[in-house]
Amino acid sequence: QVQLVESGGGFVQAGGSLRLSCTVSERTFSTYGMGWFRQAPGKEREFVAAILRSTYYADSVKGRFTISRDNAKNTVYLQMNSLKPEDTAVYYCAARSRPYDMVVVASTRAYDYWGQGTQVTVSS
Fold first, then answer.
1. Pairing mode, strands 118-123 and 89-96
2. Which of 28, 49, 108, 109 would bridge with 67, disulfide CB 3.0–4.6 Å?
């Protein structure tokens, strides 16, 4: 069973930064597509960023967030800068083991495995 473990969440003031990490227990991690989603209270889970052959971002985080990966460490990162109160949510890491062709990276259905989530709270 593939396991995803997120870390790096916390409490930060508006304008601050956080870096989330997600470590995957899978030897073939380098072949996996990876994504970050978030879910605020009372709202649906929404796409934040993904890294497959390219990187993809939600419009709301473009220019502020950066997704990257270190295949030697089986880890994907989400660097979050210029944080806003509306970024407050539980952030989830997701992994896709299937081929990338015709994938809708912003859909939760595109991913096969999920982490448990890490809370990010941004105060105004």
1. antiparallel
2. 49
* Residues contacting 33, CB < 8 A, separation 6+: 50, 51, 52, 95, 96, 100, 103, 105, 110, 111
**Which SS3 state, helix, strand or coil, does residue 71 take?**
helix
- CA–CA gap between residue 123 and residue 27 (Å, rounded): 38
Residues 33-64 pLDDT 10s: 999 999 999 999 999 999 998 999 999 999 99
Q: List the structure tokens of 117.
A: 């989530």
d(CA 92, CA 56) in angstroms, rounded, equals 16
52 by Cβ neighbours in 10 Å (0-12 / 13-18 / 19+) ranks as middle
Residue type at 72 in one-letter notation:
A
